[in-house]
């Protein structure tokens, strides 16, 4: 479904991502892990169209989308839940979701999807008319994911969904990811919480200094010495 | 007499509020202070003049003029600002100065540097007498139009997807694009609204002065800029509050200042502005904006 080849992202003098390759099959979860500044968010940003790649190809079902504007990529079925959630603070939960569903053609479509999301996230139903900024961190993360799902994406990009959340809330987020995976959604998951990420993912890519350091089935990587020492505490 | 002063004050405040809102909407979305906003007023004025000279009936001429304001703003965005997308705030500012100067020269050479008279219909300059107070019709209409425009904008921003997207874009434009909402459409809409509001302000301004000239936009837009800053640059409620506050202060000072102090009116107003900004540097109702690198 998604294949990234030789992707590079450059900010001024800094090469944040250099010649990264990986592929993701339909219905799979791929974990993209690595230290701070390894280039994970830049990779997602390039796929979603927020940053223009300096080189390489990003194919979505065979079509190269590298360098297309973000709004066009979103309309092709790619949804990014950005790092730090970035929900619209001054908008209500309802309005946040409404914008998430802006790509829907018909009002009936939108209404149906909204109802599905509220069933999946009962907490959002409760705070439907509250300002996004008044939600707790965990609730904001759920809203950010629901907002991305509103468009019925084919590919979901999650950037550190567990960032800054309490342990029980992290569990809830990962339960949800598991649930989405079972519903057949294709997910590219960036995480600092490597053990949880490797648990849910089939395959994993380890980035270091912008380049692929290691790649393979998630279970194998979880047992590799390098990953255990660097990310799983030995 | 007092009633008339109050109405005049609110009416001027409404004009400043419309202009300040136009500046604020564009600023809140692309971070540009559009110094060519005044030229949108001027363009509207000439569109009205031209239509009337061609024999278009007054109500229709007004509609043509308003559309011209909106379209001129969109054209300005398309031609001058879109190619500068992603440029620094300073470059955008300089671009808007350039557009402003260019249009002024065009108006001066293409039409005339001297003011052209526009005849307003009699009913607009008439007065009505209620009991023992006589009130002019013009300022009352002006207030009504300003309030209707504010109400319309509020409804648009709250009730429509594009309006919601514009509020969202003032917080975090990149995420709005992630939702599949085209950036160009959001920005074009912002300019269109700012142009319509500049056009309404221009018509109200002209109704009071019965003439248009190439520099007619300068003073009101300068005042509107001050109003937007007092209110909190980029904040829409701030722009409205700042506009009314400035207009009301100006007219009331005019009324109460002894004649020997009257020439210092603007100096007094600007001192008050500086005082407000010393106490609240972010303005009265600061804009909320998520700052990202
Ligand atoms: N907009 C930018 N301008 C300049 N440099 C940037 C920008 N965004 C990221 N970088 C740099 O690019 C490198 C990779 O950043 P990126 O955010 O992709 O890493 P990351 O793996 O997501 O890190 P984290 O775990 O901290 O989120 C870093 O060195 C970062 O400082
Ligand atoms: Mg990151």
Describe this structure in words.
- The complex is a heterodimer of chains A (234) and B (293).
- With 234 residues, chain A is an alpha/beta fold.
- Chain A has a single domain (2-232), classed as 3-Layer(aba) Sandwich (Rossmann fold), CATH 3.40.50.
- Chain A has helices at residues 40-48, 70-75, 93-100, 107-120, 122-126, 137-149, 167-182, 194-200, 218-223, 225-231, and strands at residues 2-11, 14-24, 29-34, 55-60, 63-64, 78-81, 155-159, 186-191, 203-208, 211-217.
- In chain A, helix 3 packs parallel to helix 6 (137-149).
- The longest helix of chain A has 16 residues, at 167-182.
- Helices cover 73% and strands 4% of the residues of chain B.
- The model of chain B has no long low-confidence stretch (mean pLDDT 91).
- Chain B is globular.
- Chain B starts with a helix and ends in a 14-residue tail after the last helix.
- Chain B has a two-stranded antiparallel ribbon.
- Chain B has one domain: ABC transporter involved in vitamin B12 uptake, BtuC.
- Chain B has helices spanning 2-30, 37-53, 58-81, 89-110, 122-125, 137-159, 161-178, 183-209, 218-231, 236-256, 265-279, and strands at 116-117, 127-130, 133-136, 211-212.
- In chain B, helix 1 (2-30) runs parallel beside helix 7 and helix 2 crosses helix 8 (183-209).
- In chain B, a hairpin with a 2-residue loop joins strand 2 and strand 3 (133-136).
- With 293 residues, chain B is mainly alpha-helical.
- The interface between A and B is medium-sized, with 25 and 19 residues.
- The site of magnesium ion has 4 residues of chain A, from helix 1.
List keywords for this structure.
heterodimer; A: 234 residues; alpha/beta; Rossmann fold; 6-stranded mixed beta sheet; 4-stranded antiparallel beta sheet; 10 helices; 10 strands; 27% strand; B: 293 residues; mainly alpha; ABC transporter involved in vitamin B12 uptake, BtuC; two-stranded antiparallel ribbon; two-stranded antiparallel sheet; 11 helices; 4 strands; 73% helix; 4% strand; globular; binds adenosine-5'-triphosphate; binds magnesium ion
């Amino acid at each position: 479904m998604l294949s990234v080849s030789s992707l590079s992202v450059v900010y001024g003098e800094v090469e944040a991502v250099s010649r990264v390759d990986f592929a993701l099959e339909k219905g799979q979860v791929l974990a993209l892990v690595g230290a701070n500044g390894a280039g994970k968010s830049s990779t997602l940003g390039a796929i979603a169209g927020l940053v223009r790649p300096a080189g390489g190809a990003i194919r979505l079902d065979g079509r190269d989308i590298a360098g297309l504007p973000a709004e066009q990529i979103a309309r092709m079925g790619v949804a990014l839940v950005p790092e730090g959630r970035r929900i619209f603070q001054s908008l209500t939960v309802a309005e946040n979701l409404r914008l998430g569903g802006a790509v829907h053609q018909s009002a009936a479509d939108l209404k149906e999807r909204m109802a599905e999301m509220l069933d999946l996230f009962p907490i959002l139903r409760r705070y439907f008319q509250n300002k996004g900024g008044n939600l707790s961190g965990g609730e904001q993360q759920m809203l950010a994911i629901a907002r991305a799902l509103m468009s019925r994406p084919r590919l979901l990009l999650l950037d550190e969904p567990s960032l800054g959340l309490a342990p029980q809330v992290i569990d809830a987020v990962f339960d949800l990811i598991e649930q989405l995976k079972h519903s057949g959604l294709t997910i590219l998951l960036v995480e600092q919480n490597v053990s949880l990420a490797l648990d849910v993912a089939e395959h994993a890519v380890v980035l270091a200094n912008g380049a692929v350091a290691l790649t393979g089935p998630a279970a194998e990587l979880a047992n590799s010495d390098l990953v255990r020492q660097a990310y799983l505490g030995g | 007499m007092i009633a008339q002063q109050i109405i005049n004050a609110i009416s001027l405040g409404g004009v400043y509020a419309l202009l300040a809102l136009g500046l604020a909407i564009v600023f809140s979305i692309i971070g540009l202070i559009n110094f060519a906003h005044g030229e949108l007023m001027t363009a509207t004025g000439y569109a009205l003049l031209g239509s009337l000279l061609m024999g278009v009936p007054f109500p229709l001429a007004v509609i043509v003029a308003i559309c011209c304001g909106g379209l001129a703003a969109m054209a300005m965005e398309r031609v001058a600002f879109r190619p500068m997308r992603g440029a620094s705030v300073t470059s955008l500012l300089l671009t808007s100065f350039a557009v402003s100067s260019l249009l002024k020269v065009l108006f001066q050479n293409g039409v005339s540097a001297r003011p052209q008279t526009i005849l307003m219909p009699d009913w607009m300059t008439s007065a009505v007498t209620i009991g023992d107070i006589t009130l002019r019709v013009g300022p009352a209409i002006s207030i009504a139009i300003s309030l209707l425009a504010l109400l319309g904008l509020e409804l648009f921003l709250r009730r429509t997807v594009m309006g919601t997207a514009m509020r969202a874009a003032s917080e975090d434009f990149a995420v709005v694009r992630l939702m599949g909402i085209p950036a160009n459409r959001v920005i074009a809409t912002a300019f269109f609204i700012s142009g319509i509001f500049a056009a309404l302000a221009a018509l109200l301004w002209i109704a009071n002065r019965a003439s248009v000239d190439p520099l007619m936009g300068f003073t009101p837009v300068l005042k509107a800029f001050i109003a937007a800053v007092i209110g909190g640059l980029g904040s829409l409620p701030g722009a409205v509050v700042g506009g009314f506050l400035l207009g009301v202060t100006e007219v009331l000072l005019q009324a109460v200042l002894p004649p020997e102090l009257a020439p210092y009116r603007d100096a007094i107003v600007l001192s008050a502005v500086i005082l407000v900004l010393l106490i609240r540097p972010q303005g009265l109702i600061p804009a909320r904006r998520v700052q990202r690198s």
